[in-house]
């Protein structure tokens, strides 16, 4: 098992090198000649040559790539084309200041509630309560953000004026409630599904039968025998979920007018602002890889069964 | 497991039947869109703009006087086209690569699985946006230079090529992983050894003995994958990188009509709910197929 972890860690630099190279080549040259795209078809040839030199695009590809990476490692992600002159790192830092707390609030309510509902559904397996929860979960997984958000918005912000329809004032304003609900529905559904399955698998283990035979109370069996073991595999899903949050965040921020990374990313993706696009893609992949690695380590630290060599 | 038993299993499964019905409706609507839709998807009638529900306009009209019902019907054609073509391009590649990597192992296995790892290292939607926005202009350029694609270019169908290419570039990897896993376990079975002793060649073992036994998880994942493709297309079009107006796409309809979410909420709700119900249908169908194809497994 230690061997597996070492392999995982050693593979990461290779993975990152390949990913950054692909993103760099596709980002700069994927859409076509970047200078031509910036200046248009009928640009003055002299201007083209000058701009190409200014942007360093007249150097060999590998030189450009290593230059980009060495600057990247020093925290310099280049400057945005769309927001002229603004450093990419500052733009991304600013948008993370909005998106990170918003997503934290969304996960903060949905993960605990999802675990609780999952336990309830497993405990009441094959009763109407279980069926209702399971069916609601499938609907929750299927309904995309742009189907749920407009309906909630209309009823809660227009019909009944209980919540403001959009905008951003930090997480201590009522404006955060609607987007956090919308963003949390997907993770909630995933957590319920995973927790239910994990608890049901654990319930049939021998040590649970032993605990029952000893005459322990059901509540004690659930909380000190079943849950600690059932929740370990559920944890891995949290790592994967960070990836699926990205799509929801794009749409939610756009629909609610929240100035976060989703909205910024959308603007730069459609404007073909390639330094920004590359930074977003590389940082997104980096965050995803690191969070999944952390989950693996945590798994390893918590569950002694995995540590033991097989 | 024969077809009859599977169909009987599905027939007793109300949720799966619901899913199957919706999927059939989607495909039939997609194929016969020109016959079903009372108006064309581009037909504007400014005299009849912002009409409520009426006999002429079953779901009303938008701010340009386009019939909403007709655009939903034409959107079904877009959605079913994208699903069918993306699956048709990505699935055979995924199955083939999964089969040879799982069966032979070795250097090809390492290379293909490391490439799949690279695709799985990105948050899914981010990779789709990245590929669509960087490859979009290049695909546009290439399509224009190929004479055979001229009718597509003139008809404004380049967006469809971009979406389908993006989704199938990513789509094969999941299938390859799944099939590889199946092959790794099935190739160890006794009946495979028996067939090999009788002199069956590798390819015969792969295609006649192992692949048919790996079919059920592949079929289930196709149904689930179809829902994912519908969602990705809607996301891309909603964000303006996928199918762009005037071509009909539900995702793009939500985006353009979102300006009127207070005054005419139905214009936003209808395409959103249509997308949601179809994804739900594919999930129900996938779950139902899973139960029908693995009747003895204790699925939870």
UniProtKB/TrEMBL annotation, chain A:
<keyword id="KW-0472">Membrane</keyword>
<keyword id="KW-0812">Transmembrane</keyword>
<feature type="transmembrane region" description="Helical">
    <location>
        <begin position="276"/>
        <end position="302"/>
    </location>
</feature>
<feature type="domain" description="ABC transmembrane type-1">
    <location>
        <begin position="96"/>
        <end position="295"/>
    </location>
</feature>
<dbReference type="Pfam" id="PF19300">
    <property type="entry name" value="BPD_transp_1_N"/>
</dbReference>
<feature type="transmembrane region" description="Helical">
    <location>
        <begin position="104"/>
        <end position="123"/>
    </location>
</feature>
<comment type="similarity">
    <text>Belongs to the binding-protein-dependent transport system permease family.</text>
</comment>
<feature type="transmembrane region" description="Helical">
    <location>
        <begin position="9"/>
        <end position="29"/>
    </location>
</feature>
<dbReference type="InterPro" id="IPR045621">
    <property type="entry name" value="BPD_transp_1_N"/>
</dbReference>
<keyword id="KW-0813">Transport</keyword>
<feature type="transmembrane region" description="Helical">
    <location>
        <begin position="230"/>
        <end position="256"/>
    </location>
</feature>
<dbReference type="GO" id="GO:0055085">
    <property type="term" value="P:transmembrane transport"/>
</dbReference>
<dbReference type="InterPro" id="IPR035906">
    <property type="entry name" value="MetI-like_sf"/>
</dbReference>
<protein>
    <recommendedName>
        <fullName>ABC transmembrane type-1 domain-containing protein</fullName>
    </recommendedName>
</protein>
<feature type="transmembrane region" description="Helical">
    <location>
        <begin position="132"/>
        <end position="156"/>
    </location>
</feature>
<feature type="transmembrane region" description="Helical">
    <location>
        <begin position="176"/>
        <end position="192"/>
    </location>
</feature>
<keyword id="KW-1003">Cell membrane</keyword>
<dbReference type="InterPro" id="IPR000515">
    <property type="entry name" value="MetI-like"/>
</dbReference>
<dbReference type="Pfam" id="PF00528">
    <property type="entry name" value="BPD_transp_1"/>
</dbReference>
<keyword id="KW-1133">Transmembrane helix</keyword>
<dbReference type="GO" id="GO:0005886">
    <property type="term" value="C:plasma membrane"/>
</dbReference>
UniProtKB/TrEMBL annotation, chain B:
<dbReference type="Pfam" id="PF00528">
    <property type="entry name" value="BPD_transp_1"/>
</dbReference>
<keyword id="KW-0812">Transmembrane</keyword>
<feature type="domain" description="ABC transmembrane type-1">
    <location>
        <begin position="76"/>
        <end position="286"/>
    </location>
</feature>
<keyword id="KW-1003">Cell membrane</keyword>
<keyword id="KW-0813">Transport</keyword>
<dbReference type="InterPro" id="IPR025966">
    <property type="entry name" value="OppC_N"/>
</dbReference>
<feature type="transmembrane region" description="Helical">
    <location>
        <begin position="266"/>
        <end position="285"/>
    </location>
</feature>
<dbReference type="InterPro" id="IPR035906">
    <property type="entry name" value="MetI-like_sf"/>
</dbReference>
<dbReference type="GO" id="GO:0005886">
    <property type="term" value="C:plasma membrane"/>
</dbReference>
<keyword id="KW-1133">Transmembrane helix</keyword>
<dbReference type="InterPro" id="IPR050366">
    <property type="entry name" value="BP-dependent_transpt_permease"/>
</dbReference>
<protein>
    <recommendedName>
        <fullName>ABC transmembrane type-1 domain-containing protein</fullName>
    </recommendedName>
</protein>
<keyword id="KW-0472">Membrane</keyword>
<dbReference type="Pfam" id="PF12911">
    <property type="entry name" value="OppC_N"/>
</dbReference>
<dbReference type="InterPro" id="IPR000515">
    <property type="entry name" value="MetI-like"/>
</dbReference>
<feature type="transmembrane region" description="Helical">
    <location>
        <begin position="15"/>
        <end position="37"/>
    </location>
</feature>
<feature type="transmembrane region" description="Helical">
    <location>
        <begin position="157"/>
        <end position="179"/>
    </location>
</feature>
<dbReference type="GO" id="GO:0055085">
    <property type="term" value="P:transmembrane transport"/>
</dbReference>
<feature type="transmembrane region" description="Helical">
    <location>
        <begin position="118"/>
        <end position="137"/>
    </location>
</feature>
<feature type="transmembrane region" description="Helical">
    <location>
        <begin position="79"/>
        <end position="106"/>
    </location>
</feature>
<feature type="transmembrane region" description="Helical">
    <location>
        <begin position="218"/>
        <end position="243"/>
    </location>
</feature>
<comment type="similarity">
    <text>Belongs to the binding-protein-dependent transport system permease family.</text>
</comment>
């Amino acid at each position: 098992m230690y061997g597996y972890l070492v392999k995982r860690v050693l593979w990461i630099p290779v993975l990152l090198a390949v990913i950054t190279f692909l993103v760099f080549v596709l980002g700069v040259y994927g859409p076509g000649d970047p200078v031509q795209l910036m200046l248009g078809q009928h640009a003055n040839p002299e201007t083209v040559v000058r701009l190409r030199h200014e942007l360093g695009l007249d150097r060999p590809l590998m030189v450009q790539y290593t230059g980009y990476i060495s600057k990247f490692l020093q925290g310099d992600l280049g400057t945005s084309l769309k927001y002229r002159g603004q450093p990419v790192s500052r733009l991304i830092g600013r948008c993370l200041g909005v998106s990170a707390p918003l997503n934290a609030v969304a996960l903060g309510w949905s993960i605990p509630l999802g675990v609780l509902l999952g336990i309830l559904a497993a405990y009441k397996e094959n009763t109407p309560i279980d069926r209702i929860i399971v069916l609601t979960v499938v609907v929750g997984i299927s309904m995309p953000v742009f189907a749920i958000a407009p309906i909630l918005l209309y009823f809660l912000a227009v019909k009944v004026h209980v919540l403001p329809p959009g905008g951003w004032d930090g997480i201590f304003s009522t404006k955060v409630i609607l987007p956090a609900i919308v963003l949390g529905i997907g993770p909630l559904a995933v957590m319920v599904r995973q927790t239910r399955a994990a608890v049901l698998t654990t319930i049939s283990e021998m040590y649970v039968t032993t605990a029952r035979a000893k005459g322990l109370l059901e509540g004690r069996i659930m909380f000190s025998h079943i849950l600690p073991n059932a929740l370990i595999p559920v944890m891995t899903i949290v790592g994967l979920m960070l990836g699926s949050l990205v799509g929801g965040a794009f749409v939610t921020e756009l629909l609610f007018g929240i100035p976060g990374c989703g909205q910024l990313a959308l603007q730069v993706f459609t404007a073909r602002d390639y330094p920004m696009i590359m930074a977003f893609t590389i940082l997104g992949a980096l965050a995803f890889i690191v969070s999944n690695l952390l989950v693996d380590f945590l798994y390893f630290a918590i569950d002694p069964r995995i540590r033991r060599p097989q | 497991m024969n077809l009859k038993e599977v169909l009987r299993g599905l027939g007793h499964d109300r949720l799966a039947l619901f899913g199957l019905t919706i999927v059939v409706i989607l495909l039939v609507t997609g194929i016969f869109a020109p016959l079903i839709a009372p108006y064309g998807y581009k037909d504007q009638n400014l005299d009849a703009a912002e009409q409520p529900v009426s006999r002429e306009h079953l779901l009303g009209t938008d701010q340009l006087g386009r019939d909403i019902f007709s655009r939903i019907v034409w959107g079904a054609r877009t959605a079913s086209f994208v699903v069918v073509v993306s699956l048709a391009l990505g699935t055979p590649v995924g199955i083939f690569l999964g089969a040879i990597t799982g069966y032979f192992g070795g250097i090809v296995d390492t290379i293909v699985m490391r490439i799949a790892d690279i695709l799985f290292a990105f948050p899914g939607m981010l990779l789709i946006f990245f590929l669509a926005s960087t490859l979009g202009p290049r695909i546009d350029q290439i399509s224009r230079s190929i004479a055979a694609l001229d009718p597509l270019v003139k008809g404004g169908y380049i967006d469809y090529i971009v979406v389908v290419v993006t989704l199938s570039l990513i789509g094969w990897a999941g299938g390859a992983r799944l099939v590889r896993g199946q092959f790794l376990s099935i190739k160890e079975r006794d009946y495979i050894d028996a067939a090999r002793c009788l002199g069956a060649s590798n390819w015969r073992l792969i295609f006649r003995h192992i692949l048919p036994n790996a079919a059920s998880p592949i079929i289930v994942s196709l149904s689930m994958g179809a829902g994912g493709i519908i969602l990705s297309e809607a996301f891309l079009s909603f964000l303006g990188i996928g199918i762009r107006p005037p071509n009909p796409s539900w995702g793009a309809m939500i985006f353009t009509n979102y300006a009127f979410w207070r005054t005419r909420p139905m214009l936003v709700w209808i395409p959103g709910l249509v997308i949601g119900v179809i994804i739900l249908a594919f999930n129900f169908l996938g779950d139902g197929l899973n139960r029908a194809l693995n009747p003895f497994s204790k699925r939870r």
